[in-house]
Amino acid sequence: LLVDGQEVHFSSPQAAQKSGIVEVHQELSLLPNMTVAENIWLAHEPLNRMAFVRRREIHARTQKLLDLFADTTRSSMQPDALVSTLSPDERQIVEILKALSLEPRIMILDEATASLDSRQVQRLFELMSQWKAQNRALVFVSHRMDEIFRVADRVTVLRSGKAVMSGLLKETNERELVSMMVESTVVARYIKHDEAAHKTAPIRVQVENLHTSVVREASFDLHDGELLGLGGLRGQGQNDILLALFGALPFTGNIILTDRQVHFTHPRQAMHAGLAYVPGDRGTEGLLPIRSILENLQLPSWQRYGVPLKLQAARQDATTMAQRLNIVMSSLNNPVSSLSGGNAQKVVLGKWLLRNPHVLLLDDPTKGVDVKAKEDFYKILSELKDAGAAILFYSSDDEELLGLCDRVLVLHDGQLQAELAGARLTRSDLVAASMGSQTA
Asked: What is the residue extent of each domain of the chain?
């Protein structure tokens, strides 16, 4: 490794930071019970001559950093706010600002846009342009091709730990890059729409006048064998709908599940009724990182194997699911933290598929995963649809919604702004509805 032409050997991230190299991690490194300011300045707090922390200075400098993303979040973030009270996109912003506070010469951004909405992504790209003008070097790791072509000058493709291509971005194209990433040309990324099939299928879930602290008067149906999308800018109530259906968020209104009215007040009730929820934050909500892959795959299902535990049967079922989802691993006994982001997300999905759910609630399941893992997800979603599963699917990727879903419900300011299907299932209609256009 050469920095400024000199060979270096870093023994720790702190050693790299001293040389001006900082990373924005894909898996957030924030401490939830500390404030925004405390997280940003942790381990490099400004001190006075008596070695006391300059709290006023920290507050002022934190506010200056937060102002870089002003008007891009639903509420104004404050330096004294606990990180645990922030939304996923706000936490990602704090992670970026934490790295920026170190005034790096080289900044590595690992899937830094995965939790951000379109406005926040645009602001980040504007800031990246400013940092480039200040002669900072940026390494931007992303699986979103459109973003790479928007911000990068040069590109390197890694596959199985090896660099298989490196060169100027203007000398290649998206199809060529994707082909190099997955070892074969991807002809069709998405499953095809079948507009007629779900219309004649039974209604699995009927929602009437759903209210939460964010959502207002949401009403819709979800059919067996349908993939129904939730679109709109991040934070418009998509997550609330998924959590309310899964019994993890208080709500008012009516939910009818297969002709039976239900009001789940705990996820356990929803789970026993055949619902499954894949959360957007796998690190804190979907997995136990220090536990084994086997334990994580079987988290919702241990009771099925009796007392004493039939471990061999549990291991065989987990092995079969790992093979079905193409989870790349060396052993089920390894901690799930040893997996890549895409394979870890497959574990989150696989633990629920072992219960054969009738209704699958997905919160941005392909966020921050590689192209090959996305292909595997799309294939499994197609199989689940064909088997009659009802799927409610939120994605921050508009192209994914348009390519996968039979219908898309677009939320704006907590309300269902539009239902898009058939000829209206277009990017222009989706963007217009996301911005609150009444003509969408």
From this structure: 2-152, 198-434
Two domains, one topology: 2-152 and 198-434: yes
* Strand, coil or helix: 254: strand
Residue with tokens 């998924």, as numbered in its chain: 242
Write the CA distances from 49 to 60, 107, 131, integer angstroms.
Answer: 19, 30, 32
> Rounded distance, CA 25 to CA 254, Å?
40
Residues 376 and 361: their CA atoms lie apart, in Å, by 18
Structural contact between residues 318 and 264, judged by C-beta atoms closer than 8 angstroms: no
Architecture of domain 2-152: 3-Layer(aba) Sandwich (3.40)
From the list 34, 13, 6, 1, the residue with the least C-alpha distance to 99 is 13
Pairing of strands 407-412, 415-421: antiparallel
What pLDDT does residue 236 have?
A: 86
Q: What is residue 438's predicted lDDT score, i.e. its pLDDT?
A: 57
pLDDT, residue 117, reads 81
Question: What is the reported pTM?
Answer: 0.71
346-359 pLDDT tens trace: 999 999 999 999 99
DSSP 105: S
Low-confidence ranges of the chain (pLDDT < 70): 182-198, 437-440
Nearest C-alpha neighbor of 16 from the set 140, 107, 135, 127: 107
What's the confidence (pLDDT) of residue 433?
87
Q: In a 10 Å sphere around its CB, with 0-12 CB exposed, 13-18 middle and 19+ buried, how is residue 306 labelled? A: exposed
Residues 48 and 221: their CA atoms lie apart, in Å, by 61
Which CATH code of 1.20.1250.20, 3.40.50.300, 3.40.50.80, 3.30.200.20 fits the domain covering 198-434? 3.40.50.300
pLDDT number for residue 193: 53
pLDDT for res 188: 41
Any idea of the CA torsion for 276, 280, 284, 287, to the nearest 10 degrees? 50
Q: Which amino acid is at 259?
A: D
- Signed CA dihedral, 245, 250, 251, 254: sign only: positive
Write out the two tokens for 254: 């009516």
Contact at 8 Å (CB) between 371 and 182?
A: yes
Q: Which residues pair with 207 in a beta bridge?
A: 220, 255
Q: At what angle do helices 88-100 and 55-66 cross, to 10 degrees?
A: 120
